[in-house]
Amino acid sequence: MRAVVVHGPGDLRIDERARPVPGAGEVLVAMEWGGICGSDVAYWKHGASGTAALSHPLVLGHEVAGRIAGLGAGVGGLTEGQPVTVHPAEPVGDERLPDRIAGRTNLHRRIRYFGSAAFDPHTDGGFSEYRVVRAAQIRPLPEGVTTEHGALAEPLAVALHAVHRAGDLRGRTVLVNGAGPIGALVVAAAKHRGAAAVIASDISETSLAVARAMGADRTVDVSAGAELPEDIEVSFDASGAPAALGPVLRATARGGTLVQVGNLPGSAVPAVLGDLVTREITWIGSYRFVEEIDDALIAMRDGLDVSPVISHRFDLDRADEALAVAAARGSSKVMLRLGGATPQE
What we know:
Blueprint: E1 2-8, E2 11-16, E3 26-35, H1 38-46, E4 48-49, E5 52-53, E6 58-59, E7 63-71, E8 83-86, E9 89-91, E10 111-113, E11 130-134, E12 138-140, H2 147-150, H3 153-166, E13 173-177, H4 181-192, E14 197-202, H5 205-213, E15 218-221, E16 232-237, H6 242-251, E17 252-260, H7 274-278, E18 282-285, H8 292-301, E19 310-315, H9 319-327, E20 333-337
Parallel strand pairs: 13-14, 13-16, 14-15, 16-17, 17-18, 19-20
Antiparallel strand pairs: 1-2, 1-6, 3-7, 3-11, 3-20, 4-5, 7-8, 8-12, 9-10
Helix pairs in contact: 1-9, 3-4, 3-8, 4-5
Pfam family, one: ADH_zinc_N
Keywords: Metal-binding, Oxidoreductase, Zinc
Protein name: Theronine dehydrogenase Zn-dependent dehydrogenase
């Protein structure tokens, strides 16, 4: 089978690997679609994502969906040919979380994640024609949700988790700074959870157009000198840009909440944070998700349309071109066709 494998910075190959066989408690998935994430781009460009650095080749991809092609011993409740997506996280060990964070499995100290070099050996991702997955990580797609859209359940889950961290949004006005794929999905998630109005801001008019298509009531192009609105009760920063923190904090109302969903750099950076104190703003981190992938599938089943966030589609053998497009301005979510599916199939 073919797999999209990064061997080092700038060294991406389509490798031939043996088709895997599911063991007890495992499922073989014939992959159909994968969405390219910023971490995939980082491994390709730099050989590392955050503090996780390549020490040997890695199959990329954690936003994936396909159809069951085989069942290992002891697996019940699933059938061959069934369309599925994957919860890409697997906590390592039997650590018991403290009571204060009980159930927040995304906060385990050690988590294996599809397409991650955080461990050695690395955890291969799903950008391959086939992938063996633990049955516990399989999520069947609801009727009417395609495998292409099912591959976006993972980033939509990230957005829904961020919205969940913000609390009840019903009837409230929300600001989303950064209208890349995650920001655009936060826009959709906030509207889905009852926000009265969502304002999206970005430096790219192309990204703002996607945000409008995902439900933003108003957009602000800060590259043109426009200022962010004032007195916003709940703000989300999906840009991860330290320079944006000062303006977003200033836009957040006194006593308001800022949810940080965009990954900030792991090194020291300058940022203007004074309003965090003087305006008594609650600044909340949001990391991946717990079980919101199930909520994402329900939301899509109930009509949340993720298609506007898709900007490009490439076949697996053009993965290097797909990553280059994903890394460039002017793109949103870039999809890889991993198997025999077609858009909206």
